[in-house]
Backbone:
């Protein structure tokens, strides 16, 4: 009985926080940046839920990603007589 209790302590105090921090937290931010509900990361708690989440992320429409915007925002136009910005290189003393 004591041997089984040692594994239960390991599960509750080491394995579960590890999964929450190193697996669920990054997926939370990925879902949020993709425009999905971050609560979809809870699919990892059920069997084969991580495969469902993977397919949702892979084949779903990422609404918030700037690459998928309908019209990219052009840079602001400069007047004809405006000075163009330039890069100034400075030499360092040896």
Residues:
């Amino acid at each position: 009985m004591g041997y089984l209790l040692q594994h239960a302590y390991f599960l509750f105090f080491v394995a579960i926080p590890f999964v929450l921090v190193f697996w669920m937290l990054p997926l939370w931010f990925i879902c949020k940046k993709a425009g999905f509900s971050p609560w979809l990361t809870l699919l990892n708690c059920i069997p084969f839920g991580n495969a469902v989440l993977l397919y949702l992320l892979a084949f779903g429409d990422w609404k918030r990603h700037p690459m998928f915007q309908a019209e990219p925002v052009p840079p602001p136009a400069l007047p004809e007589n405006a000075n163009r910005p330039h890069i100034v290189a400075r030499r360092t003393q040896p």
In short: The helical segments are 2-34, 49-59.
